[in-house]
Specification:
The chain is of the alpha+beta class. The chain has 2 domains: about 5-235, Nucleotidyltransferase, domain 5 (2-Layer Sandwich), CATH 3.30.420; about 300-435 and about 470-505, ATPase, nucleotide binding domain (Nucleotidyltransferase, domain 5, 2-Layer Sandwich), CATH 3.30.420.40. Strands 18-19-17-16-22-23-24 form a 7-stranded mixed sheet. It is globular.
């Protein structure tokens, strides 16, 4: 029996999972680390924390499992995307990493549009200039910390810094690199045009690999820290969403997944590259060689329900403590007492602005139709339904891009709720399923390593062998018709409020 290590470098912590070659979890360990916010809207982390968490968690799963390092056939990496890691000529970190949720680069995004052109940027990189992407972060350092930029000899992404420490190789994969906004997404290579216009020498960028390709081997120093055997192959891996897709078997046309976490994502695989000219959805290279994925993003999905829990649902939280259950279980039971449409109450989940389909940082949340008849249960249901409508907006954009979506998997914290899964299925009008494993990106990274190690011949065949469905909910035709009526109203509300959102932002 061979074993595989999947390492997922997240924002709150790094999770390392040891799997056998059939995808069974043998051991898991997570190490957390801090997020630094030196100014409002800024977000930074220490790359050294990612490396420490990676080798400590790797050592822990090997020790706990008792598996011989010689039987570990490979390592797969997944991680938070878009973070900027800058190294000097000695391979030392020059500054804290500016990570994905940092919002300081608004001016740099405008500069990128001026230098390249809005339409040309989307044509090459498949996405508009956004503060989350890495290119604008590089431009910020170049403008505000020129002494740091001048010393920089290599630019890496978060998981790729861990790879650098594991193997000594400066490498990345096409899925994660797609989110840097420096790639020609169609040609799956760095864009000389974009880099030249931004004044970023391509020698600063890591070598590109397809996700299941071997990118390096564990060094003696890394072996001492991690417990892995010297020479263990490390595959290129993938960004977190691309790795999660592999972990759920979303690796061929027709398959998609919905995540209801803090944010929400609707993600679909496609064998043919498609770009939304309006930039409402992202198109990236995916972890399956020669393929792409498209995705829409809701900024505040699970966050909306958490906000309601923390501000309105103190009774439900108290009842949950008394009963020894999760507060969301009690909130679900209250929502079930309401009706489809939440007694004619709609919720816009724009608590953090919105990405898909509006690309509007000024958008804000709203209850519409609130009256004296409404209960907390109605409000809870309205929030849950509003998130479903927002996810349906993303799905609608993907379908406008001629992306085939015939089956949907559901994951994330919200995906644990039977009520929310049924709502999604009824709103979408398609079946929604869960898989047996909850390991997501770590499993996806491990599956990629299984392919790189030769255990399976392709990503698709590995997923067929490893990924198993847990359950499926079917859409109800009558409920779907009822939801369509409310969704039609929901879709009109943003246009009615857009100017008011902009005016309020200036107050």
């Amino acid at each position: 029996m061979k074993y595989i290590v999947g390492i997922d470098i997240g924002t709150s912590g790094t999770k390392t999972v040891l799997f056998d070659e059939c995808g069974k979890k043998i051991a898991s360990h997570t190490v957390e680390y801090p997020l630094y916010q030196p100014k409002n809207g800024w977000a930074e982390q220490e790359p050294a924390d990612w490396w420490r968490a990676s080798y400590e968690s790797c050592k822990a799963v090997i020790t706990e499992s008792g598996v011989s390092p010689a039987d570990i056939a490979g390592v797969g990496l997944s991680g938070q995307m878009h973070g900027l890691v800058m190294l000097d000529e000695n391979g030392d970190v020059l500054r804290r990493s500016i990570i994905w949720c940092d919002g300081r680069t608004g001016e740099e995004c405008e500069l990128i549009k001026e230098l390249i052109g809005h339409d040309r940027l989307i044509e090459i990189t498949a996405n508009p200039a956004l503060t989350g992407f890495t290119a604008s972060k590089i431009m910020w350092v170049k403008r505000h910390e020129p002494e740091i930029f001048d010393k920089c000899k290599k630019i890496l992404l978060p998981k790729d810094y861990v790879r650098f420490m594991l193997t000594g190789e400066a490498a990345t994969d096409v899925s994660d690199a797609s989110g840097m906004q420096l790639m020609n997404i169609g040609k799956r290579c760095w864009s000389e045009e974009v880099c030249e216009k931004l004044g970023i020498d391509t020698s600063l960028l890591a070598k590109l690999y397809e996700s299941p390709e071997v990118s390096g081997y564990v060094t003696e120093e890394a072996s001492r820290l991690t417990g892995l055997a010297v020479g263990t192959p490390v595959v290129a891996g993938a960004g977190d969403n691309a790795a999660a897709a592999v972990g759920m078997g979303v690796v061929c046309d027709g398959k998609a997944f919905t995540t209801i976490g803090t944010s929400g994502v609707v993600f679909a695989h496609t064998d043919k590259m498609s770009i939304d000219p309006a930039g409402r959805a992202h198109t990236f290279c995916c972890a399956v060689p020669g393929c792409w994925h498209v995705m829409g993003v809701t900024q505040a999905a699970g966050l909306s329900l958490r906000w309601l829990r923390d501000t309105v649902c103190s009774d439900e939280v108290e009842k949950a403590e008394e009963s020894g259950v999760d507060p969301y279980v009690i909130m679900d039971s209250e929502a079930e007492k309401s009706t489809i449409g939440a007694s004619k109450l709609l919720f816009l989940p724009y608590l953090m602005g919105e990405r898909t389909p509006h690309l509007d940082p000024n958008a804000r949340g709203a209850f519409v139709g609130l009256s004296a008849i409404h209960t907390r249960g109605d409000m809870i249901r309205a929030v849950m339904e509003g998130v479903c409508y927002s996810q349906a907006d993303s799905l609608s954009v993907l379908r406008e891009m001629n992306t085939d979506v015939s089956s949907m998997l559901v994951c994330g914290g919200g995906g644990k709720s039977p009520l929310w899964r049924q709502m999604l299925s009824d709103v979408y009008g398609i079946p929604c399923s869960r898989i047996e494993s909850d390991e997501g990106p770590a499993l996806g990274a491990a599956i990629l390593a299984m392919v790189g190690a030769g255990i399976y011949p392709s990503v698709e065949e590995a997923c067929d062998a490893v990924v198993k469905l847990r359950d499926t909910v079917e859409p109800d035709g009558e409920r779907h018709k009822q939801y369509e009526c409310y969704y039609d109203i929901y879709k009109k509300l943003y246009s009615h409020l857009k100017e008011d959102f902009a005016t309020m932002a200036k107050l």
